From TrEMBL:
This is 2-dehydropantoate 2-reductase. It is an enzyme of class 1 (oxidoreductase). The keyword Thylakoid does not apply. Keywords: NADP, Oxidoreductase, Pantothenate biosynthesis. It comes from Rhodoplanes roseus. It catalyses: (R)-pantoate + NADP(+) = 2-dehydropantoate + NADPH + H(+). Residues 14-152 form the Ketopantoate reductase N-terminal domain. Its EC number is 1.1.1.169. GO terms for biological process: pantothenate biosynthetic process. GO terms for cellular component: cytoplasm.
Length: 310
């Protein structure tokens, strides 16, 4: 693995689809770096964006489009919707993607290319692993929290290196790695632990520091690690405690994307996270009773929120 120091390409046209916690942070970072032509593809137009970052708050002007019909092909799409919202972004992708376009997927979950490929036409899909915590405070305001040494990882191949070069002028800490598939599984381990527990308890990550909750985390992680190994991920012998230790890098006041959805009364990104572990467990004959219990509870809350919003 190596920390990226890619040379910056010439100015590129970048469209950011989904301006929530993750999209808002990356949009503000790229606009602030000032090198590329950025447009945000949103449901409600806005003219500026504020990002509260550990190194200070920045306010950037933002060009936004609210109608996919007004979009034209770009060099890069940064897809920052939730995984279950990918299909709803299809009209954007249809307009933004040409044969030279690359679609970087800033979403949680494994098999991103499989998920996004059907909507990307002739464009190439570039998977990533997102480590930073992004909290959307208002439609035009986000907060960035770092955890661990990197904010974003991409594969050590031509497309991954091109993405690292694209973001090289930003303050995001990038990792170019030959092990992205295993890192995606490692990241999923964090998500099937922290996301359900914060969303179900309606408490931020401080709750993970309770002894009883830590014991539950480790048991959930052991199950998911067994599934990940059966699925081909090169997970370590002590992967479960290592994943728990990684979670301790997040500040206790950080929430999770699922916790933020619960606060906002939105449906959850459940099938791509806990649902993916349970489904892979079924495929490989690995039992997942704790993850199954989480899945039933998360689906019940998520469905009620989705039905109430309909
Ligand atoms: N938040 C975090 O700390 C982390 C999140 N992730 C992952 O990153 C991804 C994004 O998460 P996050 O930023 O938290 O999610 P958010 O819910 O905060 O943001 C998603 C955004 O996508 C927008 N959106 C959804 N559908 C469409 C559409 N069809 N057209 C235009 N905009 C659309 C939403 O708009 P609207 O407001 O109008 O609904 C919203 O602004 C997820 O996969 C998540 O798991 C990964 C690491 C950390
Ligand atoms: C690891 C974690 C919890 C960091 O925010 C995350 O990926 C999420 O919130 O979905």
């Amino acid at each position: 693995m190596c920390v990226s120091q890619q040379p910056r390409p010439s100015a590129q046209r970048i469209a950011i689809v989904g301006l929530g916690g993750i999209g808002g942070v990356v949009a503000a970072s790229v606009v602030h770096a000032g090198h590329h032509d950025v447009v945000a593809c949103v449901r409600r137009p806005l003219e500026r964006l504020t990002a509260e970052r550990p190194d200070g708050t920045i306010v950037v002007p933002l060009r936004s489009l609210a109608d996919p019909a007004a979009a034209t092909p770009v060099d890069w799409v940064l897809l920052c919707t939730k995984a279950h919202e990918t299909a709803s972004a299809a009209p954007w992708l249809a307009r933004l993607c040409g044969p030279g376009t690359r679609v970087a997927v800033l979403q949680n979950g494994i098999h991103q290319a499989r998920r996004v490929g059907p909507f990307a036409g002739a464009a190439r899909v570039v998977p990533t692993v997102v480590y930073y915590n992004g909290e959307r405070l208002a439609a035009d305001r986000v907060r960035l929290r770092h955890a661990g040494p990197h904010d974003l990882a991409m594969a050590d191949d031509a497309d991954g290196r091109a993405l690292a070069a694209l973001l090289a002028g930003t303050t995001l800490r990038l990792l170019v790695t030959p092990e992205l598939d295993t890192l995606a599984w490692r990241k999923l381990l964090l998500n099937v632990t922290a996301n359900p527990i914060t969303a179900l308890t309606l408490q931020r990550q401080a709750v993970l520091r309770r002894d009883d909750v830590k014991a539950l985390c480790l048991a959930v992680l052991q199950e998911a690690v067994a599934v990940g190994r059966a699925d081909g991920a090169a997970l370590a012998v002590d992967e479960a405690p290592r994943a728990f230790d990684y979670l301790m890098n997040y500040p206790p006041e950080a929430g999770t994307s699922m916790y933020y959805d619960r606060l906002a009364g939105r449906g959850f990104e459940v099938e791509a996270l806990t649902g993916a572990v349970v489904a892979a467990g079924e495929r490989h004959g690995v039992p997942t009773p704790l993850n199954r219990a989480f899945l039933a509870l998360l689906r019940a809350i998520s469905d009620a929120a989705t039905n109430a919003a309909a």
